[in-house]
């Protein structure tokens, strides 16, 4: 598929999606958000995991200024429709059935933090710069807030969103906005190590695990989870992949999804 604002590459089950507007530090516009949502909503079955990153000097500088200027003149209904596209994109990443990884370098400003926070895992370089600076221009980080708050918690979100201050990669790790910050020269090796671990996990088990975490975190009470979790593990133990994995463990051999 040909994209205007993205580059994609599928190699050994790893789908790399690169934001590809380097001339504006990959700031997103309507086209990019539409293409990005479509990528995550219609993954090829052969995909094992997805890495989201940016071409050029930065991961993403947030909203494109030209698009922001145009949106600022819209009616309420037009603004609402445009905002729903933002929400759709972040939810598509969050609901992706495959493991998702954000690789952040350069800057991650404003809405870019929604892209990385919606991913399952996020890694950055120590010199990366993050900011939730919407309050500085009199607006709020509304559509990204569910995902940022899930990552950093209520009070961490208050500090980052109310001050709008810029933080480094190391500080982003402290806030738990990213899983880990590493020196720039170690980012690729870090990603390779994570992907190698995912290659040793059952592909269907990872998807089931994402569903499990989503439902327990967002949908179920503790009482509802009592039965739900018991049924899930019973179903998966009886599945082909579950049987293969348990037999491989007992027989002290590698399961068939490890090449």
Quick gist of this model?
This protein has 259 residues and is of the alpha/beta class. It has helices at residues 30-41, 65-72, 76-94, 112-117, 145-163, 169-175, 187-199, 203-218, 222-238, 240-250, and strands at residues 6-11, 14-19, 49-54, 100-104, 107-109, 121-125, 129-131, 166-168, 180-182. It has two domains: 6-198, 2-enoyl-CoA Hydratase, Chain A, domain 1, CATH 3.90.226.10; 202-250, no CATH class.
Core attributes:
9 strands, 2-enoyl-CoA Hydratase, Chain A, domain 1, 49% helix, 10 helices, alpha/beta, 259 residues, six-stranded mixed sheet, three-stranded mixed sheet, 2 domains
Walk me through this protein's architecture.
The structure is a single chain. It is built from 10 helices and 9 strands. The protein is of the alpha/beta class and 259 residues long. A 6-stranded mixed beta sheet has the order 1-2-3-4-6-9, with helices on both faces. Helix 1 (30-41) links the parallel strand 2 (14-19) and strand 3 (49-54). The chain is globular, with a radius of gyration of 19 Å. The relative contact order is 0.10.
């Amino acid at each position: 598929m040909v994209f205007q604002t993205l580059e994609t590459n599928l190699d050994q089950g790893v789908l790399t999606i690169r934001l590809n507007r380097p001339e504006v530090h990959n700031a997103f516009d309507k086209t990019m958000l539409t293409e990005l949502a479509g990528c995550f909503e219609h993954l090829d079955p052969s995909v094992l995991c997805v890495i989201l990153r940016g071409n050029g000097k930065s991961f993403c500088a947030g909203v494109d200024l030209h698009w922001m200027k145009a949106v600022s003149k819209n009616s309420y209904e037009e603004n609402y429709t445009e905002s729903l596209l933002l929400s759709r994109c972040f939810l598509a990443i969050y609901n992706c059935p495959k493991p998702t990884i954000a690789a952040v370098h350069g800057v991650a400003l404003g809405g870019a933090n929604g892209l990385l926070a919606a991913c399952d895992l996020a890694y950055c370089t120590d010199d990366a710069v993050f900011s939730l600076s919407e309050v500085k221009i009199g607006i709020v980080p509304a559509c990204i807030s569910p995902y940022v708050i899930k990552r950093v918690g209520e009070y961490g979100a208050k500090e980052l969103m109310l001050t709008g201050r810029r933080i480094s990669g190391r500080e982003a790790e402290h806030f738990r906005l990213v899983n880990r910050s590493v020196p720039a020269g170690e980012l690729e090796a870090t990603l390779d190590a994570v992907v190698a671990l995912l290659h040793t996990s059952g592909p269907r088990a990872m998807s089931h695990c994402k569903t499990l975490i989503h439902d327990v975190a967002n949908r179920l009470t503790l009482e509802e989870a009592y039965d739900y979790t018991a049924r899930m593990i019973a179903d998966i133990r009886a599945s082909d992949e579950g049987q293969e994995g348990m037999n491989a463990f007992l027989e002290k051999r590698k399961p068939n999804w490890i090449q």
